[in-house]
Design a protein that fits this description.
The structure is a homodimer.
Chain A: H1 12-22, H2 24-37, E1 43-50, E2 55-61, H3 75-89, E3 95-100, H4 107-122, E4 126-131, E5 140-143, E6 149-154, E7 156-157, E8 162-163, E9 171-175, E10 193-195, H5 207-225, E11 236-242, H6 250-271, E12 279-283, E13 293-295, H7 302-308, E14 325-331, E15 337-339, E16 342-351, E17 354-363, E18 378-381, H8 401-425
Parallel strand pairs in A: 3-4, 3-9, 4-6, 9-10
Antiparallel strand pairs in A: 1-2, 1-16, 5-6, 7-8, 11-14, 12-13, 12-14, 15-16, 16-17, 17-18
Chain lengths: ~425, ~425
């Protein structure tokens, strides 16, 4: 079952779909050549928004969760990709340690961990789950729905290695985005592979670096296809050191928002698009408390000056960060897909260089210009029974869900190439040859 | 839908299944290390027979046909494996030329070619089909059932390269086993990848080399698992220069058959197996006219001395080869699987190092000790909707079709490792470092 797509099926995006399908051999070759020079993230997921006239990734996760939202039918692809990934990194691997988030009571999250364990076990590894939560002092087995379970075990650190009691892994897979900072226990591991690397964690990583890399990738890809890179790239700007609680730097933020809205308006005019431009404002360091704020007019920002004067309460999920924060102002991309009448955006899952699955994130109570990654979202897997992510040559643009998903897979992989560039550019251990 | 399995579900084979499942991480690691040292065949398929007490590959095809017998659901795995294969061989690849058999009227075979074209097109290549059949003098489009079609084009040879008019491939994929000899048009290609290599063709390849390599592989694998390699290895002997038409060398053949039947009888006794031993006799060079002859008693060979004296007619599919032929005497392996009451044997398909699918070859009119690869066979795909080739940890031995198929995938891959050794040992261009 592939979700019913109600995207506006005319206009430039279908030209893009047709262009992408026609260029498939050139595109796949381009990716192959990229991966000769760059290392793909071990795994990643990408949130994609399809405005009908524009298609772009809006968030790229290097510690993807939600693997349990993929159908069982997608498992073999994930397993095959995991085998390819392991073979490259450490063919001699026997043991893999998965380090999850410290949400030991969230069974939805733990079902994701169980799925990851299953994928890597099926790829032929001994897999165990090591918690860095100080509350886990002895092995704790947690039963999950559908008869599954996860056993969280306390990690044990020696001078050079991290493991469990009687379990010495050669590779450590982080499913913990380290937004609270890098724990010392993960540092200075000289004889083990730690994936993703520590500088992918949200205490170090910056969205602005990723957006900068993605802009570069979209320009090169646009050249390959002969298209305006704007069709796949959301414009952005960075407003550094804004203290929303104190109202400091609000003028800089406002002028960035104003300038970006003007640029988007100009682009909409160029393409004859009758939509109201908007931008989203979010923290550069991916911090959760602030959330993602949709700004349709500079006046929307006045709430912060009122809040800083104690005249407006913060809404849940959009608390005002304390102290100066670096913010990102990003061109908003509408999502014009609907699944069962709910606003939907596709999420593409990748392992090594391969697209292994995807689903629609659906939120019935949000509008097409709002963030859907909020409590209340549901997930509709892109089922595999129709080979949903392989292109169907000859099908009419817009009419074929498989072709649509091939296009999403291309955009997801562009975000993955950008993440690879980003990780290289921000690697603290990188040697400089200049 | 996974075919109903009626294999005798007790006895040593289930111990083997359990041993294989328990050793999964060690097995996968073993394969990874093998592929560090050796190159897997580009693609291959392996016929496997499951006697209940013994499980072995009986034929390994380096020019696999029948890709159209895999379900559509297996396509994504094949495409992903094809991408991995291309990336290793020629990441810069744009164009792939497929060279099929010269059966331009066999729509079953051409449906296989169409499937291969589809797989490699989806992997991102421009794919065309170049016929070496002298009868194909201009492009010929052949319509197939289900709205598919294949276009056969005449190949064009230049001094160093082979291609089509206005189509210069970097890689040439043979789906033609060259049993009639290597055409000069394929020789001395110095700037193109030709896969599989010419010495994989049946005018050069010898089954005895493969069986010798497989014996070595099964010994090493037996050691890894702590099992008698006989459980996965059919014993064999080679009888050179037998002229069945003239009755020459029949004494050598008879003594080999007798000796092998005795050896099998001894093994059956060791394991308490109440079955009648048999051997199969086939041409070392894979020649079709002779077929595969089941010999249950040395007396069965008398037909050849009667035939050579003109006293017995040859049966269809078992014509007597003219002139001296090298023969293989191989331990017969019963197949005790049934699908819809027909005798069945699993066939495993591999691309690069990955198992990408499989089906049961079923023949209602053959018995469990006879070759099933004959006219009248039908094919029941192992469907993907149940992730049929991934193991299900915890399921009872013998009770789980997915676990059963994981085991078949392991045996298929052992045959693939053996083919890799075989190709190395018989490579005429190999450099010797001794």
């Amino acid at each position: 079952m592939v979700p019913h797509l109600v995207t506006a099926l005319t206009g430039p995006i279908n030209e893009l779909e047709q262009r992408i399908l026609d260029s498939m051999p050139a595109i796949e070759r381009w990716f192959r050549l990229e991966w000769m020079e760059h290392t793909p993230p071990f795994y990643s997921s990408s949130d994609i928004r399809n405005a009908g006239f524009k298609l772009a990734p809006v968030d790229t996760n290097l510690f993807p969760r939600g693997w349990n939202n993929l159908t069982d039918d997608m498992l073999p692809l994930a397993v095959q990709a995991a085998q390819a990934a392991i073979e490259k990194i450490c063919p001699e691997a026997r043991n893999l340690l998965v380090i999850p988030e410290n949400h030991s009571k969230n069974t939805f999250y733990l079902a994701n961990v169980a799925r990851l364990v299953r994928i890597f076990h099926m790829a032929g590894l001994n897999v165990r789950v090591g918690s860095i939560d100080p509350a886990i002092k002895s092995p704790k087995k947690i039963e999950l729905p559908h008869g599954e379970s996860v056993c969280l075990e306390p990690v044990v650190r020696s001078r050079r290695r991290l493991g469990l009691k009687h379990f010495d892994p050669c590779t450590i897979l982080l499913n913990n985005d380290l937004s609270a900072g890098t724990p010392g226990i993960l540092e200075d591991l000289h004889e083990q592979y730690l994936l993703p690397p520590l500088h992918a964690g949200w205490s170090v990583r910056r969205k602005s670096n990723h957006l900068h890399s993605y802009e570069e990738v979209s320009k090169r890809f646009g050249k390959l296809l002969g298209i305006d890179p704007w069709l796949i790239n959301p414009m952005h700007a960075r407003a550094g050191g804004v203290d929303l609680a104190e109202g400091k730097g609000l003028d800089v933020l406002t002028s960035h928002v104003d300038a970006l809205l003007t640029k988007v308006r100009r682009k909409y005019k160029e393409y004859g698009i009758n939509e109201k431009p908007f931008v989203v404002v979010k923290a550069d360091n991916g911090a959760d408390p602030m959330g993602v704020m949709t700004v349709r007019d500079v006046k929307d920002l006045e709430i912060f000056s009122r809040r800083s004067r104690g005249k407006a309460p913060a809404s849940p999920g959009q608390e005002t960060p304390q102290g100066p924060t670096d913010l990102i102002v990003q061109e908003g991309v509408l999502t014009n897909e609907r699944v069962n009448n709910g606003v939907a955006e596709p999420v593409v899952y990748m392992m090594d260089r391969y697209v292994v699955g995807g689903f629609y994130r659906v939120h019935a109570e949000r509008s097409p210009d709002e963030n859907l990654n909020m409590a209340g979202a549901s997930f509709v897997p892109l089922a595999f029974s129709e080979s949903a992510h392989l292109p169907q040559p000859g099908a009419k643009p817009g009419a074929s869900a498989p072709n649509r998903f091939y296009m999403y897979g291309v955009i997801g992989r562009l975000a993955m190439v950008a993440a690879s560039y980003e990780m290289e550019a921000t690697n603290p251990d990188a040697e400089t040859y200049e």
